[in-house]
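idk why but the lab printer keeps eating my pages so im just putting this in chat instead. protein + pyridoxal-5'-phosphate:
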Amino acid sequence: MQTMQVKNDFPILDKVLYGKYPLVYLDNAATTQKPRQVVEAMTEEYYNVNANVHRGVHFLSQQATELHEASRETVRRFLNARSTAEIVFTRGTTESINLVASCFGWAFMKEGDEVILSEMEHHSNIVSWQLLQARQGIRLRVIPITDDGLLNMDEYEKLFNERTRIVSVTHVSNVLGTINPVRDIIRIAHEHGVPVLIDGAQSTPHMPIDVQELDCDFFAFSGHKIYGPTGIGVLYGKEDWLDRIPPYMGGGEMIKNVSFEHTTFGELPFKFEAGTPDYIASTGLARALDYIRSIGFEYIEAHERDLTTYAMQRMMEIEGMHIFGPKDITHHDAVISFLVGTIHHLDMGTLLDRLGIAIRTGHHCAEPLMHRLGIEGTCRASFALYNTREDIDALVDAIHRISQMF
Ligand code: PLP
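predcted complex ->
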């Protein structure tokens, strides 16, 4: 598979910025670009199928329902879940995590009970538990990281006690690029009889996921980070857990019968899907997953590993370059956070933009991690299947130019 061929599927990558700089898009951890196949499938559905799902007896409604449920099956296959009952459509990783924190917390946690998180979590996997803390008096326990940006697994084991109710950790850090040893995290939690939620926002675009093999109890990811549309994501949950936790929101679609005295809830996964779902986005997500399958994770992993290794080598040529996160590439995914000398991350990001290069700057919704690192923010370049070594050369050349200005 040629990267140039892949690039042709993403029309936005042909853009020229400020009249002369070809776009070099390296902000993929924030959101990925969308291939034609995704955009066209969604447009086609709006033009030719559009009708509300699940409720209608008419032709279009049935067709839209079939497409929506076929998309759920595509997601099931992508994660290798046992059943589509375990695939809940949400608005994204954030909503998936909030759903678990609220509903699992409501059903199974009381004052003094504990959730184990890590020092490298995204705010969505911190604040959602703090809301539960404010409501129900639960406690947050935090796995520290090592100076290399890895989870301290010895400290992790020590955090378990009789009040531990759930572990909720990210698979891949959106700042450090660390690939966490989720199999060990899950095995250790299960030895203590504790379920695990994995935040897969940054892993799903880069590596195959098999929720049965991982044996995680919940798994969350976002469509827009995996070449799909915005506004849709997934919560996978083992059927047994989803059966036992109460619904998140009330409304249409999630009920069997309603009276003022008593309501019975719908079957899984509909119990968690109140209101009209984004059935156009589910089609887009399914086409994005088909697209990834057509390219194959074998290619994606090899290509992105090559890019990350090349980028680390080339970036280290720059005077004053500091790269955060694991140096060992086997623990490092396609995200590189860096600072150069005393150049402020915002200045670097703004000047790179003027040269057509899109990176992210700031705390990356991980302020506690910034505190641990003793910094305010970083510059972050993150790669996707359509990036090339030429993109990295452009980044390195531009950083050289900017460094000389300072
Ligand atoms: N978790 C991680 C690790 C992330 O990187 C992100 C987004 O950057 C999120 C959660 C939140 O994802 P979303 O904004 O799509 O809900």
